[in-house]
Amino acid sequence: MNKSYKILLTGSVIAIGAMGLMANSINSREAERKEINTGPVVQAEGVASKNEEWYRYYPREYDSWKQTKKSDKITDLLREKPQLAIIWAGYGFAKDYNAPRGHFYAIQDNINTLRTGAPTGPSNGPMPTACWTCKSPDVPRLMDEVGENEFFTGKWAKYGNQIVNPIGCADCHNSQTGNLGFSRPHLGRALEASGVNLDEITFQDMRTLVCAQCHVEYYFRPTEWTDKTGKTKTAKVVTLPWAKGLSAENMEEYYDEYSFKDWTHKISKAPMLKAQHPGYELFSKGIHAQNGVSCADCHMPYKQQGSIKYTDHNIGNPLDDIASTCLTCHRDSEKAFRDRVASKLERKEQLMKMAMDTLAAAHLEAGKAWELGATEAEMQPVLELLRSGQWLWDYSIASHGSFFHSPEETLRLLGVANDKGGKARIKLAAILAQHGLIGYQVPDFSTKEKAQALAGVPLQKLITEKKAFESTLLEQWNEEAVKAGRLDPKTLEGMSNKSSWSQTELSQ
Amino acid sequence: MNKSYKILLTGSVIAIGAMGLMANSINSREAERKEINTGPVVQAEGVASKNEEWYRYYPREYDSWKQTKKSDKITDLLREKPQLAIIWAGYGFAKDYNAPRGHFYAIQDNINTLRTGAPTGPSNGPMPTACWTCKSPDVPRLMDEVGENEFFTGKWAKYGNQIVNPIGCADCHNSQTGNLGFSRPHLGRALEASGVNLDEITFQDMRTLVCAQCHVEYYFRPTEWTDKTGKTKTAKVVTLPWAKGLSAENMEEYYDEYSFKDWTHKISKAPMLKAQHPGYELFSKGIHAQNGVSCADCHMPYKQQGSIKYTDHNIGNPLDDIASTCLTCHRDSEKAFRDRVASKLERKEQLMKMAMDTLAAAHLEAGKAWELGATEAEMQPVLELLRSGQWLWDYSIASHGSFFHSPEETLRLLGVANDKGGKARIKLAAILAQHGLIGYQVPDFSTKEKAQALAGVPLQKLITEKKAFESTLLEQWNEEAVKAGRLDPKTLEGMSNKSSWSQTELSQ
């Protein structure tokens, strides 16, 4: 081998090596590019319902989501606003109604509320399976596994050992792609019914619509279906009443046409509607929505960790972090924002209290009228006013922050709700007089205890039964879920199992 | 003379000439600078009340001001909203009430309205001199000449031949400097009473406050004074009730403490308050004021004529020129603005109608209760609710565009106003029943004619008298004013002398 050949060889080897390194670098960059631009597959098929499984791919998002655990305060709204127990007499909300807590508590709160009762086995208890619909990524997993009709058939207790992970990743993200998407079919159907072309939904739209899967008005529509064995069953399918539009009056017309009622009022006998939480609907009437702002823009601001930008999943009150939320668009001091929002809240609180007082008094006066022998014909216009007025009131305030999302629409609705309640009371004064009672003063409903007594809520019995349920069937559910690998036992750690009634002393 | 001397001389002459020209140029530039930076003296002393006199210095502003003559449509609000005649029964507004027209018609409308009656000489007629206060730059001229107490003493007809120029230049501009300034002392006093340091008012503040001289709530406070001859007289002094604050509730408290009433309601006998037009007060609760926007920013946008920038004095609806108003700050389409404003108006119209219907029915029911022998003690709480509810209603809608200036405050107030009216009606249903009448239906007030008949308005008599006044005393006033050089006769040219009643056929 001569020297020049050696040099040539060495050069060639170096060149080949360098090319190899370059190719390797190109390949690894291409892999990196793919990784950055493609969400990882958390689970190859179906729905990855355990939030913990998303941690390895989305550690920042997961950690911020877990911060919702800190939003753990129980605020007993029946104690703060006892009128509610009168207004909802005969319905679950008169039993127990708290201000919302973080997403982390969705399962715990659903189990703890006295509204879901104390089942002793999979086929009893007051509530249908539909009551789980918005509580957990186990819901889309189950819908995927058993079908939507089967999911919506049966009692709430049917899925006690299946639905165990609180609202989390797979509620809004596809487990194969990580992309935002609907996990609940009811929203897509409702959007189509209200004229939306699903193919034209943008990413920015989606940053609102994934929230709108749950933060909306809905009802449980009885739907007949036939199972594989040919047996006819009735599913109670979560349905959004959007076919006539999204306003309170549109939905009222929808429900009226369908002769739908949620319950018959225990005191006034009015055929009532219960608004759930039409947050998306009210938001869409407000100035932020009109300017293209999404839910996530304010409730899930972008955050920075080192060089990584991510979305904060500690969904809560944007006022907790004005610098990352309001101030990204508006120029003003934090104080100015707080004062402005406070005055909006104050106005709504005033009109809300006014309407609640009117409606509660009207229900009690209607009860008295029945007691004195009022006729169906006399009472019919009163009951219609009560149904309509209370619906408008409920629609306007049942969702988070309606006073901010759409302050003018909220105030308008509260004004009209109160007017209808007032008109019912004017009629009732005449009906009562007709039956010999002039100037009737309704009984005192100024405390939760007094109001629940008037509403006939057997609170102590409900608590006793709930406690028995929690120490038996609930423990069994959790054990089964852990054993089957559906629940990470760590999820239950450090949960104080708080409720409005855990400190209530029971009389012997 | 040698040649070099000649050259020297010629050079010197040229240099001196050039220096002279330069000095002249410097002087004329200095004069120009002064002229640009100093408003001209329209009149050496006192108030230049004839708007025509300002034309030579401010031709663009004058011409744009004169465009307010085009805003000449008469909208009879008693015809559009007949409830008003019931609500104001016993007070001037039940006689005649139109939507506002351009500043140019301030005098004509004040003379034409049936509210100012038909005086036959300087010391009779229903109204005090105070009713001229906001109508003309002749008012500050007169106050300057006779003193404020003398101005506010006597009947409206006292100044019929003095107050002849419609709202114009000297209402907001100083005749010696052209600067913005208060021409009415009541505003300065009210600002001081509400804690404002007048020395800290900025130019931008002034672009709102000159409007606030008139677009505010006020009342005529009886004030004793002694004239030069030692005679004690009572002036009715325009006073802004701001000492407790600017909200509706603040002012209500002020009036209650002072046991003030504007009139006793003819049907219900309630001691009523009439809101004037608290536009500044409501505006100051809204988002535009909170962001430092002035009245002039939207109602008097800057315009360009060649290289000259001037302020448009054709004060009217900013929606007539969205490009020069809203769009200087906001980015959106004109259509988006129109739709947004329309929905604000719609909400306010709904709650306003609701409250008016409730209040009108309550007044009529109260009238029936008195008729059936209700006692003062029974009626007292009803009358208090009527006074308070109607005040809140009136405060919320009496000014221009409250639905836009402060939509949330307007809706809140309408909701509370309606609630108070409703509570009065509930009490009245019991009082009527107590006096043997159950389920009373109030008489029909669905047209202006029906409502005015219920309110006891002698419309034909009022029109006949007004026509007589206009063909006698009014003509005399105008002749005297022209003769004394206080009125340019051209001002009256082309005025169609429109009113709500000019086309009303009188029965023989």
Mean pLDDT of chain A: 94
**Count of DSSP strands of chain A:** 6
N-to-C series of helices and strands of chain A: HHHHHHHHHHEEHEEHHHEEHHHHHHH
| Proportion of residues in β-strands of chain A | 5-15%
Organism (chains A, B): Desulfotalea psychrophila (strain LSv54 / DSM 12343)
Subcellular location (chains A, B): Periplasm
Function (chains A, B): Catalyzes the reduction of nitrite to ammonia, consuming six electrons in the process.
Enzyme class (chains A, B): oxidoreductase
Structure, explained:
The structure is a homodimer of 508-residue chains. The first copy, chain A, is mainly alpha-helical. Chain A is 48% helix and 6% strand. Chain A has helices at 3-37, 59-66, 77-80, 83-87, 106-112, 138-146, 148-151, 169-172, 185-193, 203-212, 248-257, 279-283, 287-290, 295-299, 334-371, 376-397, 402-405, 407-434, 448-454, 459-471, 473-483; strands spanning 219-226, 232-239, 263-264, 271-272, 302-305, 308-311. In chain A, the strands form three sheets. The first copy, chain A, has a two-stranded antiparallel ribbon. Chain A has a two-stranded antiparallel ribbon with strand order 3-4. A two-stranded antiparallel ribbon of chain A has the order 5-6. In chain A, helix 15 (334-371) packs antiparallel against helix 16 (376-397), helix 15 runs parallel beside helix 18 (407-434) and helix 16 runs antiparallel to helix 18. The radius of gyration of chain A is 28 Å and the shape is elongated. The mean pLDDT of chain A is 94. Chain A binds chain B through residues 287, 290-291, 332, 336, 340, 344, 347, 350-351, 354, 358, 407-409, 411-412, 414-416, 418-419, 422-423, 425-426, 429-430, 433-434, 438-439, and chain B through 287, 290-291, 332, 336, 340, 344, 347, 350-351, 354, 358, 407-409, 411-412, 414-416, 418-419, 422-423, 425-426, 429-430, 433-434, 438-439.
